[in-house]
Amino acid sequence: MESSVFRFIWRYSKRDQILLLILTGLSFPFLYYSLDLPKTIINDAIGGTEFPQSLLGIAFDQIPYLMLLCGIFLSLVFINGGFKYFINVFRGILAERMLRRLRFQLIERTLRFPQTHFRNLSQGEVVAMVTTETEPLGGFFGEALSLPAFQGGTLITILAFIMVQDPVLGLAAISLYPVQAYVIPKLQRQVNLLGKQRVRTVRKLSERLSETVSGIQDVHANATYQYELADFSDRLGAIFEIRYRIYKKKFFIKFLNNFLAQLTPFLFFSIGGYLVIQGDLSFGALVAVLAAYKDLSAPWKELLTFYQRMEDSRIKYDQLVEQFAPADMLDERLIAVDGAAGTPPLGGRLQGANLVLEDDGGDRRVNGATLAFPVESHVALLGDAGSGRSDLARLLSGQTAPTSGTVTVNGVDVSDLPRSHLTREITYVDQESALRSGTILDNLLYGMKQRPVAENPAVPRRDERLAESLASGNSGFLVDDEWIPADIGDPLAAVGEVLRLTEIEDDVFEIGLRSVIDVSDRPEMAVKIVAARARVRDLLAARDLQDVVEMFDPSRYIYSATVAENVLWGTPVDETFAADGLSRNSYLHYVLGRADLLEDFAEKGRVVASAMVELFSDLPPGHEFFERFAFFHHEQIPEYQRILTRVSGQGVRSLSEADLTSLIELTLQVVVSRHNLFEMSDALCARVLEARRLFARHLPEEFRDKIDFFDVERVNAASTIQDNILFGKVMMDRADAATRAAQLLAEVVEEMGLRAAIVGVGLGFDIGIGGKRLTVAQRCKLTLARALMKRPRLLVANKALSGVDPATETTILRHIRQAQGGRGLLWVGDGEEPPANDDQPFDQTFVIERGKVREVSVREEAPAAVRRDRAEQE
């Protein structure tokens, strides 16, 4: 980054800034004549007596001459406005391009920060600096040269005009400028220093707030609410004190400016009036001077304001340069897109010699560690927590630079290797590796996207977007281009392989089953789902499993579904008929009224409310039973107690519409076979079926697309794949029904050839920020699968499966070692014994203690490269 804000501006926008200066200079003659023309209009056209007047050889009487001059004046106003419009638009575009360039540079430098730097720099602080703190700089970039030139030129033009009219008035106009030019900058420097202090204090507040939010569980665990609030109160108070001092100085500057600005009109009125009375100045000239002075204050104020912004921008830029230039930042050439060109594959011997890694306090996390092994061997690195095992794994994989010592592969220092080549050959997986927001497939392919391999012609406005990106100094590639290299073959086949290796395929399959598909995008799959539905019906009948799944039948009440589902007989598409608030839907009220169900549903709701109040009224707020079993929240208990009291005395007919709706809401949530809160008589079931028919028959046109009705002949677009295939509800009153239904579902899916398609749907599941919509075990598996997609020459797995159970970890490790046959694996784990695998022991095992490494075993049947390496060391 450039050392100063003006160096940055001049380097990246020199041509545009010069163009703005040229346009600014061209506007001044038009400005001058627009100031001079009113004097001519008043003195010659209005007050003149010699007519006709000749202009360009054409004679004009008084009225035509007046109209002509007024028309010229209007034209000059339009031209001046046009100059301002074009300059402002061009300045705005320039400012946004420069701001985009600066943010891109800051983000690019953030990606090159050493990983240890983030121990002292919170993510909230980085975000604030890149987004919020750079925003004021954007406007300054566009006006850094053009605004002082434009406003200063305007000021000089107006002063020149006033001087031409009368030198005394000209001197009066500028008499107070030296005072302002001397006093204001001194005061402004004090404001700027306070502003710099404020920025630093706000950053610390942001950092502390981010830390508190990340560790909110500890606040709750220790009940340190008041301490935290006192801490934040103190920090906010410090910001308040700085702001208070800024306001006092800032508004004193404004007061001084306004006072001095009002002294000049006093001089104009007194001196100008005296000159007019004495006949030394025409009345038209005085009017023109006063009009010109009216325009004079604006550029002067703009110049003073610009000075304030300039100083503020200079401070902000200097702080950014300071924050985004840490020591040991990754060399820019190592992340260049063509940096790996011509680099041979890594092979041979990986060696760490006398490796030392110190933290900020000078403590050695790795202390003189030395080890070596062939890249293609399978090695275990073991140690207890705090032994330095993770730090050593990061050093060996080139993720962290050592304080001293070297890591080499066949004598080549890994710190000199292009990162795209290094990380493709030696892939590192951490127990804390982060996933990106996006789909499962996006994350699996993420590690392959190191450089674009082909353009995507289908990208809208491709050339325009790319040209604008380059004009702003941003990336020369588009994220929508093709980034997956061809050497991995069929990406989906590779994805399927790593899903099986990491035991996450079943998880993705389950996710796919719980997903909704767009029928128009997958018509063939929709046909198979309907066929699978028929097959499920056949198997249920053939195996006498009618007590496992209660199939949807429009002529029957489904006891394993909610009362609401029985009435709607479909799946809501949006919030119109969603479960929350369904009882308040006016159309549903109409249907229940037509079917004579309002009082019955209210009475059933009374039964539910009575049971809920009795069961949960003594539980504390937030108890897990409310989430798992209750139909309402703890704070609603008094409301339902009031309703129950009224009903017990006067019956449900005495209730208000709001209370009636509250009871009906409880009834609609009930699954009769699961909750066993009330019976559904045959007569009541018949009226529910009547409500079902009325609901579909009289549904208003505007609601037709708000619900997708159940139809055995087609896929329900708002239901999950699993619900579509079963086309029914698993029996709630059978303990093993869910397991047997899942087995039957899996059998039918395999038989119908739907598994691959459902896995494909699961791959499109959005995992949320940081993968938070997945379980810990799923995140571990997905992170490891992402690394295996590269087929690395050496995989460094640092406690990569710490979130899965030991049996699954052993299975996945066996799969990985088979997949890495002929390629290397460095497996980092706990203790001093490698994971049990009698069929395939590790070639070498190292143990690290207090930052030092010792070899504890080597397999006799280890590859020749391992034996040769040991012989060389001996």
Describe the protein.
The protein is globular, with a radius of gyration of 39 Å. The protein has 874 residues and is an alpha/beta fold. The longest helix is centred in the first third of the chain and has 54 residues, at 225-278. The strands form 5 sheets. A 6-stranded mixed beta sheet has the order 8-13-14-5-15-16, with helices on both faces. Strands 4-3-6-7 form a 4-stranded antiparallel beta sheet. Strands 1-2 form a two-stranded antiparallel sheet. Helix content is 58%, strand content 9%. The chain is built from 31 helices and 16 strands. Strand 15 (844-849) and strand 16 (852-858) form a beta hairpin. The model has no long low-confidence stretch (mean pLDDT 84).
Specify the biggest β-sheet: 6 strands, mixed
| Overall pLDDT metric | 84
**Residue fraction in strands:** 5-15%
Shape: globular
Number of strands: 16
Q: Strands across the major sheet, in which order?
A: 8-13-14-5-15-16
Terminal CA distance: 49 Å
Radius of gyration: 39 Å
Q: Which residue ranges are poorly predicted, with pLDDT under 50 across at least 5 consecutive positions?
A: none
Q: How does the SSE layout of this entry go?
A:
Layout: H1 5-46, E1 53-55, E2 58-60, H2 62-111, H3 123-131, H4 135-143, H5 146-165, H6 167-174, H7 177-214, H8 216-222, H9 225-278, H10 283-323, E3 349-358, E4 364-374, E5 378-382, H11 389-396, E6 404-409, E7 412-413, H12 419-425, E8 426-430, H13 440-446, H14 462-471, H15 491-501, H16 505-513, H17 523-542, E9 549-551, H18 563-568, E10 570-572, H19 586-594, H20 598-616, H21 624-628, H22 637-650, H23 657-669, H24 672-675, H25 682-697, E11 707-709, H26 721-726, E12 728-730, H27 737-751, H28 755-763, H29 776-788, E13 794-798, H30 806-819, E14 824-829, E15 844-849, E16 852-858, H31 864-873
Parallel strand pairs: 5-14, 5-15, 8-13, 13-14
Antiparallel strand pairs: 1-2, 3-4, 3-6, 6-7, 9-12, 10-11, 15-16
Helix pairs in contact: 1-2, 1-5, 1-10, 2-4, 3-7, 5-6, 5-10, 6-9, 7-9, 7-10, 9-10, 13-29, 15-29, 16-28, 17-27, 19-25, 20-22, 20-23
